Amino acid sequence: MSHHAAPDLTSSTSVDDLLDLGSLLTDDERAWQAKARAFAQDRIVPTIEADFEDKHFRSEFIPELGAAGFLGMHLSCYGTAGAGAVSYGLACLELEAADSGWRTFVSVQGSLAMSAIAKFGSEEQKSEWLPRMASGEVVGCFALTEPDGGSDPASMGTRAVRDGDDWVITGAKRWIGLASIAGIAIVWAQTEDGVRGFIVPTDSAGFSATPIDGKLAMRASIQCDIVFDGVRVPESLRLPDAIGLRGPFSCLNEARYGIIWGVMGAARSCLEAAVERSSSRQVFGGPIGRFQLTQAKLADMFLEYEKGVLLALHTGRRKEAGTLTPEQISVGKLNNVREAIAIAGLARSILGGDGVTDAFPVMRHMANLEAVRTYEGTDEIHALVVGRALTGVQAFR
């Protein structure tokens, strides 16, 4: 075996065999996981290191993801797959094992943009947009975060003012995934009646989206600055049932749920690379895996990976039962991102100097995970959500 052989994601791995996670899944869940793993291995992995280096997003994958049923797969209407929460989580895990950018795409399209329309849109809006988004014909973005900070959306500066049968939107958003390739943007703006949501076609006059350059993470995906310069939107494109911040927050919780699973895919990829390298790298006359310190690192990495997947599975079962709370989502997001980053760091140490090169996926995953750590709620915000749940005291202000 080559020292730099990529782990074979199409077969069951020893990491997952050790505690037999598959025995906790249904046949349908295993089938979705296998389909996502095959797509990630066959389509994403062969070019992802070059795409990361070249800052290239392969938009040709979008209709393929749609045809496979991954876009909005957890929804059950208007051309979506109607998969369970655990199946969706497993798909997120397998896509992020290839690269966080592709789990992010599925998350922005399905958990954010499509969920907003499915939860808060009119029948006309749902029937017009959801089938086209499920197929990948139309890409959606979710415009909530603003340049002055994402953790306090209640203070957003983007405004929508009623003008006859239209709304006029003025303001700016930042770090908006997919905005420069999207056909529609789900835009959240302050009105005289509080925060409201709008479906804004991106070819509207006054709408401009500029990809953010200089990123050292998420380089194979797109995040943008958006400017709204008096963008005129008809009342028919306002999401009628989105009232206040409950609207965007419920969508964010859908996306955070996917992250709980997804980052464990990045962690598994790093763990597999470390396990393989501990056998193939020879020092002091034998493989480094025979040293106690190396085995201790591998054991620590495996324990946190396994606990993270079990936590994801628990949140998934609660989501399917309709009992998952925002606080539980914060526990999962905070723990799993933090532990995935720690696993990537230990994997890098086992790989030695070669671990900082693109011969292995570890540094790419580590950089991506730092971005995931910040978006959909920072560590600090999720820690305060958990602290509030434990103490009953709000510490945000």
UniProtKB/TrEMBL annotation:
Give the residue range of the signal peptide.
none
What SUPFAM superfamilies does the entry give?
A: Acyl-CoA dehydrogenase C-terminal domain-like (SSF47203), Acyl-CoA dehydrogenase NM domain-like (SSF56645)
Which reactions does this protein catalyse? glutaryl-CoA + oxidized [electron-transfer flavoprotein] + 2 H(+) = (2E)-butenoyl-CoA + reduced [electron-transfer flavoprotein] + CO2
Q: In which pathway does it act?
A: Amino-acid metabolism; lysine degradation; Amino-acid metabolism; tryptophan metabolism
UniProt entry keywords in alphabetical sequence: FAD, Flavoprotein, Oxidoreductase, Transit peptide
Q: Where would I find the Acyl-CoA dehydrogenase/oxidase N-terminal domain in this sequence?
A: 26-137
Extract the GO molecular function terms from the UniProt entry.
Answer: fatty-acyl-CoA binding; flavin adenine dinucleotide binding; glutaryl-CoA dehydrogenase activity
Q: InterPro entries in the record, alphabetically?
A: Acyl-CoA_DH_CS (IPR006089), Acyl-CoA_Oxase/DH_mid-dom (IPR006091), Acyl-CoA_Oxase/DH_mid-dom_sf (IPR046373), AcylCo_DH-like_C (IPR036250), AcylCo_DH/oxidase_C (IPR009075), AcylCoA_DH/ox_N (IPR013786), AcylCoA_DH/ox_N_sf (IPR037069), AcylCoA_DH/oxidase_NM_dom_sf (IPR009100)
What EC number(s) is this enzyme filed under? Answer: 1.3.8.6
Q: Please give the cofactor(s) recorded in the UniProt entry for this protein.
A: FAD
Q: Which residues form the Acyl-CoA dehydrogenase/oxidase C-terminal domain?
A: 250-390
Tell me the superkingdom of the source.
Bacteria
Q: Where is the Acyl-CoA oxidase/dehydrogenase middle domain?
A: 141-231
Biological process terms from the Gene Ontology for this record are: fatty acid beta-oxidation using acyl-CoA dehydrogenase; fatty-acyl-CoA biosynthetic process
Quote the Gene3D superfamilies the UniProt record gives.
Answer: Acyl-CoA dehydrogenase/oxidase, N-terminal domain, Butyryl-CoA Dehydrogenase, subunit A, domain 2, Butyryl-CoA Dehydrogenase, subunit A, domain 3
PANTHER family of this UniProt entry? GLUTARYL-COA DEHYDROGENASE, MITOCHONDRIAL (PTHR42807:SF1)
State the similarity comment: Belongs to the acyl-CoA dehydrogenase family.
- Protein name per the record: glutaryl-CoA dehydrogenase (ETF)
